[in-house]
Write a structure and sequence with these properties.
three-stranded parallel β-sheet
Length: about 120
């Protein structure tokens, strides 16, 4: 599942992703991956310029992972390839990455990361 999917308003991105994951599970999917959508391929760049897509932030990714932790019937993971694009704060980057890796391994994101440098509380 692309997060956020093109053409989905940012305010609905997490809700839309959770609906899509539930739909996939209801149709028999046993493993679903949340893929933070990326620019740099031309198509997403154009959509971004038109205001039809916004790259995901860490808060969106973690909120979606937390929401997926409550969905039973399938393993849900987060694609961590090139995830550094979504982790702008260097001091808390390792802790957030560890939290997402823990989610991928256990299905539970664990406690939120607190960071004084960026005021992160996710």
């Amino acid at each position: 599942m692309l997060l956020p999917a093109p053409f989905v308003p940012v305010a609905r991105a997490v809700e839309s992703a959770l609906d899509a994951v539930r739909h996939a599970v209801d149709r028999g999917a046993r493993h679903v991956t949340l893929i933070p959508s990326r620019d740099g391929n031309g198509a997403m760049d154009e959509l971004r310029e038109q205001g039809l897509w916004t790259p995901p932030g860490l808060d969106m990714i973690e909120e979606a992972a937390e929401g997926c932790a409550g969905i039973s019937g399938a393993v849900v993971t987060v694609d961590l390839w090139d995830i550094d694009r979504c982790l702008p704060c260097r001091p808390c980057r390792p802790a957030h990455l560890a939290r997402l890796r823990r989610f991928n391994l256990t299905g539970s994101p664990g406690p939120p990361v607190r960071c004084g440098a960026c005021a992160s509380s996710s």
